[in-house]
């Protein structure tokens, strides 16, 4: 499948690199208003391909997106140190106004994957601007937070993150909800698994993992200015789920008719992802505090949206 990536910065190029290395697309086309950057990223990644796959990597104008089955929207302005994801909003909404129409005239049948932050709001904006079925405008949402959550639980339990089934819900940002009550490792609750491994999941351990997930982006931004490898790999995972019609469960963000009493809000819950985008929504079993936190996250996103004129 041909994949378009609009925005050839750190996140877009990391996604392209991951897709090329895994060979999960036959072709990748980078588009960026900085056309020199798009060309340079395409060449650099193309030179990695002989070591890994047969993906053809090029760069060009929006016309070159013709025939793309998926277009990743990674264009935007970067997050500055100390800046919250929501503060990025106004600047990035303008970018989407400039690009969505051009993407859809070239690739009217593509599934859109939204990666630009604040991703939930940008997903809502992309859905409205595109006029597409919300299921076809998939925000990367908490896919990365979920990966961080699984990684840290895995480290604590001494097992591979792939054996951990745990999700981060709600906003990709400060109000996100770590769904501890439904977190499992193998066939056990993480609590029971930890007890059997003699490394109990104390409140202190949970608080450390919560902090590690919730503040990972801030820590990484302080150290290297931005984050890109984790989200790049997450975007590749979504591309694979869509291009291969996998029907895998991923925590992604789409405009959802109703979550915790809040209507038409884009946020993450586990969803089945396949060729057409999101195929079904799953509402996990949560305890009361998690329900409340998810409701608060939904209301926060909704109030931001309501304040925004787009
Ligand atoms: P991130 O870390 O989120 O990838 P970057 O600043 O590295 O942030 O990348 C964002 C990319 O989006 C930049 O390469 C920038 O040139 C591109 N971009 C910004 N605005 C537009 C636009 N209106 N059209 C196309 N590309 C854009």
UniProtKB/TrEMBL annotation:
<feature type="modified residue" description="Phosphotyrosine">
    <location>
        <position position="218"/>
    </location>
</feature>
<comment type="subunit">
    <text>Homotetramer.</text>
</comment>
<dbReference type="InterPro" id="IPR001557">
    <property type="entry name" value="L-lactate/malate_DH"/>
</dbReference>
<feature type="binding site">
    <location>
        <position position="79"/>
    </location>
    <ligand>
        <name>substrate</name>
    </ligand>
</feature>
<dbReference type="Pfam" id="PF02866">
    <property type="entry name" value="Ldh_1_C"/>
</dbReference>
<comment type="pathway">
    <text>Fermentation; pyruvate fermentation to lactate; (S)-lactate from pyruvate: step 1/1.</text>
</comment>
<feature type="binding site">
    <location>
        <begin position="76"/>
        <end position="77"/>
    </location>
    <ligand>
        <name>NAD(+)</name>
    </ligand>
</feature>
<keyword id="KW-0021">Allosteric enzyme</keyword>
<keyword id="KW-0560">Oxidoreductase</keyword>
<dbReference type="InterPro" id="IPR018177">
    <property type="entry name" value="L-lactate_DH_AS"/>
</dbReference>
<feature type="binding site">
    <location>
        <begin position="145"/>
        <end position="148"/>
    </location>
    <ligand>
        <name>substrate</name>
    </ligand>
</feature>
<feature type="domain" description="Lactate/malate dehydrogenase C-terminal">
    <location>
        <begin position="142"/>
        <end position="306"/>
    </location>
</feature>
<feature type="binding site">
    <location>
        <position position="165"/>
    </location>
    <ligand>
        <name>beta-D-fructose 1,6-bisphosphate</name>
    </ligand>
</feature>
<feature type="binding site">
    <location>
        <begin position="117"/>
        <end position="120"/>
    </location>
    <ligand>
        <name>substrate</name>
    </ligand>
</feature>
<feature type="binding site">
    <location>
        <position position="85"/>
    </location>
    <ligand>
        <name>substrate</name>
    </ligand>
</feature>
<feature type="binding site">
    <location>
        <position position="140"/>
    </location>
    <ligand>
        <name>NAD(+)</name>
    </ligand>
</feature>
<comment type="similarity">
    <text>Belongs to the LDH/MDH superfamily. LDH family.</text>
</comment>
<feature type="binding site">
    <location>
        <position position="11"/>
    </location>
    <ligand>
        <name>NAD(+)</name>
    </ligand>
</feature>
<dbReference type="Pfam" id="PF00056">
    <property type="entry name" value="Ldh_1_N"/>
</dbReference>
<keyword id="KW-0963">Cytoplasm</keyword>
<feature type="active site" description="Proton acceptor">
    <location>
        <position position="172"/>
    </location>
</feature>
<dbReference type="InterPro" id="IPR022383">
    <property type="entry name" value="Lactate/malate_DH_C"/>
</dbReference>
<dbReference type="InterPro" id="IPR011304">
    <property type="entry name" value="L-lactate_DH"/>
</dbReference>
<dbReference type="InterPro" id="IPR015955">
    <property type="entry name" value="Lactate_DH/Glyco_Ohase_4_C"/>
</dbReference>
<dbReference type="InterPro" id="IPR036291">
    <property type="entry name" value="NAD(P)-bd_dom_sf"/>
</dbReference>
<feature type="binding site">
    <location>
        <position position="150"/>
    </location>
    <ligand>
        <name>beta-D-fructose 1,6-bisphosphate</name>
    </ligand>
</feature>
<protein>
    <recommendedName>
        <fullName>L-lactate dehydrogenase</fullName>
        <ecNumber>1.1.1.27</ecNumber>
    </recommendedName>
</protein>
<dbReference type="InterPro" id="IPR001236">
    <property type="entry name" value="Lactate/malate_DH_N"/>
</dbReference>
<feature type="domain" description="Lactate/malate dehydrogenase N-terminal">
    <location>
        <begin position="1"/>
        <end position="139"/>
    </location>
</feature>
<feature type="binding site">
    <location>
        <position position="227"/>
    </location>
    <ligand>
        <name>substrate</name>
    </ligand>
</feature>
<feature type="binding site">
    <location>
        <position position="32"/>
    </location>
    <ligand>
        <name>NAD(+)</name>
    </ligand>
</feature>
<keyword id="KW-0597">Phosphoprotein</keyword>
<feature type="binding site">
    <location>
        <position position="62"/>
    </location>
    <ligand>
        <name>NAD(+)</name>
    </ligand>
</feature>
<comment type="function">
    <text>Catalyzes the conversion of lactate to pyruvate.</text>
</comment>
<comment type="function">
    <text>Catalyzes the reversible oxidation of malate to oxaloacetate.</text>
</comment>
<keyword id="KW-0520">NAD</keyword>
<feature type="binding site">
    <location>
        <begin position="115"/>
        <end position="117"/>
    </location>
    <ligand>
        <name>NAD(+)</name>
    </ligand>
</feature>
């Amino acid at each position: 499948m041909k994949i378009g990536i609009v925005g050839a910065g750190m996140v877009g190029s990391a996604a392209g690199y991951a897709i090329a290395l895994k060979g999960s697309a036959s072709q990748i086309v980078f588009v960026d208003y900085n056309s020199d950057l798009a060309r340079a990223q395409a060449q650099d990644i193309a030179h990695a391909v002989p070591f890994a796959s047969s993906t053809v990597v090029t760069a060009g104008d929006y016309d070159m997106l013709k025939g793309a089955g998926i277009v990743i929207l990674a264009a935007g302005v970067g997050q500055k140190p100390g800046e919250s994801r929501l503060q990025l909003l106004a600047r990035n909404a303008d970018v989407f106004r400039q690009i969505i129409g051009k993407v859809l005239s070239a690739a009217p049948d593509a599934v859109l994957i939204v990666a630009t932050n604040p991703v939930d709001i940008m997903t809502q904006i992309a859905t409205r601007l595109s006029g597409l079925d919300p299921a076809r405008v998939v925000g990367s949402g908490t896919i990365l937070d979920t990966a961080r959550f699984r990684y840290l639980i895995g480290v604590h339990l001494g097992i591979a993150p792939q054996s951990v089934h745990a999700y981060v819900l709600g906003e990709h940002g400060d109000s996100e909800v770590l769904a501890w009550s439904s977190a499992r490792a193998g066939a056990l609750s993480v609590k029971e698994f930890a007890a059997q491994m003699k490394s109990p999941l104390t409140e202190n351990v949970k608080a450390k993992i919560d902090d590690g997930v919730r503040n990972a982006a801030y820590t990484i931004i302080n150290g290297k200015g931005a984050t890109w490898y984790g989200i790049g790999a997450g975007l590749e995972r979504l591309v694979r789920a869509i291009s291969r019609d996998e029907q895998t469960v991923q925590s992604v963000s789409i405009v959802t008719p109703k979550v915790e009493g809040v209507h038409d809000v884009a946020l993450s819950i586990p969803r089945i992802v396949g060729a057409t985008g999101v195929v079904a929504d799953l509402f996990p079993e949560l305890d009361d505090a998690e329900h409340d936190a998810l409701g608060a996250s939904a209301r926060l996103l909704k109030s931001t949206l309501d304040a925004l004129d787009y």
